[in-house]
Amino acid sequence: MIDIRLLRDSPDDVRVALRRRRMDLDSVIDQALRLDAERRALLREVESLKAERNRGSEEVARIKREKQDASAVLLSVKDLGERIKALDDRVRGVDEALQEVMLRLPNVPLPEVPDGDATANRVERSWGTPPAFSFPAKPHWELGEALGLFDLARGAKVTGSGFPLFTGRGARLVRALINFMLDLHTTEHGYREVWPPYLVNRDSATGTGQLPDFESNMYLTGDGYYLIPTAEVPVTNMHRDDVLPGARLPFGYVAYTPCFRREAGSHGKDTRGLIRVHQFDKVELVRFCRPEQSPDEHQRLTAHAEAVLQRLEIPYRVVLLAAGDLGRASAKTYDLEVWAAGVRAWLEASSSSTFTDYQARRANIRFRPRADAKPEFAHTLNASGVAFPRTIVALLENNQQADGSVCLPPALVPYVGTDRLVPDGS
Fold this sequence. Notes:
Elements: H1 4-9, H2 11-19, H3 26-65, H4 71-102, E1 122-127, H5 140-147, H6 152-158, H7 168-187, E2 192-194, E3 199-200, H8 202-207, E4 226-227, H9 232-236, E5 243-245, E6 251-260, E7 279-289, H10 294-311, E8 316-320, E9 332-340, E10 345-354, H11 358-363, E11 366-368, E12 376-377, E13 379-387, H12 388-398, E14 406-407, H13 413-416, E15 420-421
Parallel strand pairs: 2-6, 5-11
Antiparallel strand pairs: 1-8, 3-4, 6-7, 7-13, 8-9, 9-10, 10-13, 11-12, 14-15
């Protein structure tokens, strides 16, 4: 969440910054400022009453030492205690209300983030050359069905639309991508591998910013757990309420998980094939650092995600998102968009984001700059390293051959066991 001191000291600057998101949040900011002022006034009153009670207690002790009647002063001290208790209850209520309001405010975009909505997103660089074919390129759903890689109809029968079922070499391809990405990030990029739970509690979903605003997009179990929309949620919350040793920063974790999102496939967009699904696989990168390390860490994190696409020889471009297209928790985001020749479109396969101290404040993730120093809030970052569905779309569509087979990049051959995908039995 935003630092309340920033909101208190520079409310107009925060208003201007959040308006860049194309969101009307002035009423929320006003409510937060009112609650903050009320809380501080109550705390001043409590402190004044506590000082008065202390003086009364000292007076009682003096009177008793002089063996005189202290009953009147005792009654006054008791009355002060009851007033303090009532005020403490009011402070707790205002604290809870202020916390609820602050959770509704998104992060402040960094100054270098472009103004505008998604139309103002800026291509920063590109890598690779989109393929040119001498034959009509097929979309991945035709290629996958002909090659026996997945069976979307049976997946829909088992669960529903947007829950793909991979079969045969398609299932092996998914497993190959898991191992390839985890090996790359652990052996070359220095990440520590973790295998987190796929269900999280409400505190974890709140800590990374999924709640309260996106609860309708998450799958909720009957006993109050949420299916994760990304491994970012459990991995970041590994350090919720922790104080990290500053000497260890920066460091990162990598995790493979399935991901679950209700909103995928909504509004009738991209509902065919693998482009937009409710369940998908992803390898996620999460980093923790000091505030001064954050800009360099974001570039490093983005480069780690790019390395995956380069090894897979998939043409891509790096897009800096405009303020109006940022996720609520992000202060700055690069999208990595892969070229898919069959649907002739750039498809987002990774988002690399820095959250500054926004998530750390929500999840209470701190570090000690020195052993004897007061804890400070860390900075958190994450990126898909990378998501599978659109990566598979690009692999199939860009590497298709005239005979319907699909060639695989050399980096995947040891994991798949072949350099070409052909129909089963061919």
